[in-house]
Design a protein that fits this description.
Layout: E1 2-8, E2 11-13, E3 20-31, E4 34-36, E5 59-74, E6 78-82, E7 96-106, E8 109-110
Parallel strand pairs: 1-3, 2-4, 3-5, 4-5, 5-6, 5-7, 6-8
Length: 111
């Protein structure tokens, strides 16, 4: 768990699994950060071969007061996935108060 975390100006590239995971976080801001988890970097569209890159989630977050903005995400699974808090979470009992804006997303979905 963490409190008051800023992530900015990073390129997260070619992750074989969930790219960015934040569990039990309070006050997280992610800005100007890009995720590029393409199966083939020369392809700029999704096709059947691209969807074989399962679990290349972009941002997976569980916590409170999360702001993700001005980011680009290209993957073949969830671009942003809101995860549940667990019974051992310190900061809150559920994921809440999250804002996602100005995001260019190309993947399977946004939660």
């Amino acid at each position: 768990n963490s409190t008051n975390l800023l992530v900015e100006n990073i390129l997260l590239k070619n992750s074989p699994y969930w790219t960015f995971l934040a569990n039990d976080i309070a006050n997280l801001e992610i800005r100007y950060t890009d995720v590029d988890a393409r199966r083939r970097p020369d392809i700029h569209y999704h096709d059947l071969s691209e969807i074989t890159a399962f679990n290349t989630d972009g941002f997976d977050v569980a916590g409170t007061n999360v702001w993700i903005h001005d980011c680009n995400i290209w993957n073949d699974d969830d671009c942003i996935a809101v995860k549940e808090q667990t019974s051992s979470s310190i900061h809150s009992s559920c994921s809440e108060n999250m804002l996602f804006e100005r995001i260019n997303a190309s993947g399977v979905g946004l939660t």
